[in-house]
Amino acid sequence: xxxxxxxxxxxxxxxxxxxxxxxxxxxxxxxxxxxxxxxxxxxxxxxxxxxxxxxxxxxxxxxxxxxxxxxxxxxxxxxxxxxxxxxxxxxxxxxxxxxxxxxxxxxxxxxxxxxxxxxxxxxxxxxxxxxxxxxxxxxxxxxxxxxxxxxxxxxxxxxxxxxxxxxxxxxxxxxxxxxxxxxxxx
Length: 186
What we know:
Blueprint: E1 18-22, H1 27-37, E2 50-51, E3 53-54, H2 64-80, E4 86-96, E5 101-105, E6 112-117, E7 125-127, E8 132-134, E9 140-144, E10 150-152, E11 161-170
Antiparallel strand pairs: 1-9, 2-5, 3-4, 4-11, 5-10, 6-9, 6-11, 7-8
């Protein structure tokens, strides 16, 4: 026997952010690095929500060329958003080929997530709840609240899409005493 005391289903309003911009990027270098990473033994090819080629989760965490772009992006965030102290914890590369896609998902419980595109491509990043589609272009980035669901429909062209996605995690101020309010790498 079962007794249900409460069953509630309804939509609630949530605060969120989504920032789209462009940044200077050494796309050739980063694309070549992704091509190496998806061939490495610890790759995540077709093992995650990304039904495509993927490096390991922390592949770009110490890459100076990626970190320079990342620093430019978060400098803007830090000047406009009120987000507690955070650190970069994951940054992975991906290659989406014809008929590959990304399943609908979110990045909760991270505090900030994003993607940096390395080439122009017609396969959009779709945020259904917001009715927003982001079209990849070299140097285009999107920073967003990790609670936002997003996906990419199957790639319909023979051209590959290259990108680096990343997550930032909340850290305590006492964890980064010498690195300032924002820490680019945990």
